Amino acid sequence: MAIKKNTKRWLGGIFAGLFCLWLGFVGYIDWAMRQPPEVFGHVMARMPMPAYFLFPFETMWFDARKGSLEIGAKAPDFTVKTLDTRVPVRLASLWIDRPVVLVFGSYT
Q1: What is the 3-state secondary structure (H, E, C) of 46-68?
Q2: What is residue 90's three-state secondary structure?
Q3: 108: pLDDT confidence band, cut at 50, 70 and 90?
Q4: Does residue 29 register a pLDDT over 70?
């Protein structure tokens, strides 16, 4: 069964359009993954479940969140509020007098 030249051109145009939409979608998700958790959570909360199958979520997530720190590198400065007094504390102010160990995770 032969496909007419116009039909091939029409199908090729549809395929190219869908591919451009997919690239835009993947680009938007990649942008969202590199935003603060509040923005990313807002984007993903509105994502329909079948959309998760349209892009390589895990690969993109690991790439977006890998960071640039190396083992033994100096930690970047940041500010957090203490649990007991809710007073902001800068990391740089802690390591003036003594070494600081950062533990991420649960210690209970």
Answers
A1: CCCHHHHHHCCHHHHHHHHCCCC
A2: strand
A3: low
A4: yes
Cα-Cα-Cα-Cα dihedral sign, residues 20, 22, 26, 29: positive
For the chain, what is the radius of gyration of the CA atoms? Answer: 23
Please give the single-letter amino acid code of residue 55.
Answer: F
Q: Which two tokens stand for residue 91?
A: 């990391």
Give the C-alpha separation, 37 to 39, whole Å: 6
Q: How far apart are the first and last CA of the chain?
A: 69
pLDDT greater than 90 at residue 20: yes
Q: Against a cut of 0.85, is the pTM above it? A: no
Rounded to whole angstroms, the maximal C-alpha distance in the chain is 81
Cα separation of 98 and 73, whole Å?
Answer: 17
- pLDDT at position 52 is 81
Helices (H), 1-108: 5-33, 37-45, 57-64, 91-94
